[in-house]
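Need residues for this backbone.
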């Protein structure tokens, strides 16, 4: 499994920052703010690829409500092998989920060479 760094300050041309969003696309806090400020997330777009970022909505319900958006992301990553995706701890900040609740949604990504996933523990570059 590839591991997402705890702090991402810059990306190579083929890399994408995957973050938790809200459906309205107001990227004002947490990783969403980083995505907007540094990686091209578009204010008002709550889902999908935007610049060098990919939004997965996490603020509109429970884990089952997030699942279809994660599956959409996984399909996108499978169909865009030329890109490398750094999944952040989506839903585990402002949205209030525990990483143990969200991690199983990404189980298909464990063996994907072009997806990095966060760990349970903090890391420093």
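Answer:
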């Amino acid at each position: 499994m590839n591991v997402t760094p705890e702090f991402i300050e810059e990306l190579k041309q083929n890399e994408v920052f995957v973050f938790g969003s809200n459906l309205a696309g107001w990227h004002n806090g947490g990783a969403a703010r980083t995505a907007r400020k540094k990686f091209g997330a578009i204010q008002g777009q709550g889902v999908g690829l935007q610049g060098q970022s990919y939004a997965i909505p996490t603020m509109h319900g429970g884990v089952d409500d997030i699942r279809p958006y994660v599956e959409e992301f996984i399909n996108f990553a499978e169909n865009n092998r030329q890109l490398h995706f750094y999944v952040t701890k989506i839903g585990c900040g402002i949205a209030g989920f525990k990483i143990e609740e969200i991690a199983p949604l990404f189980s298909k990504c464990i063996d994907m060479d072009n997806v990095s996933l966060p760990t349970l523990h903090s890391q420093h570059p």
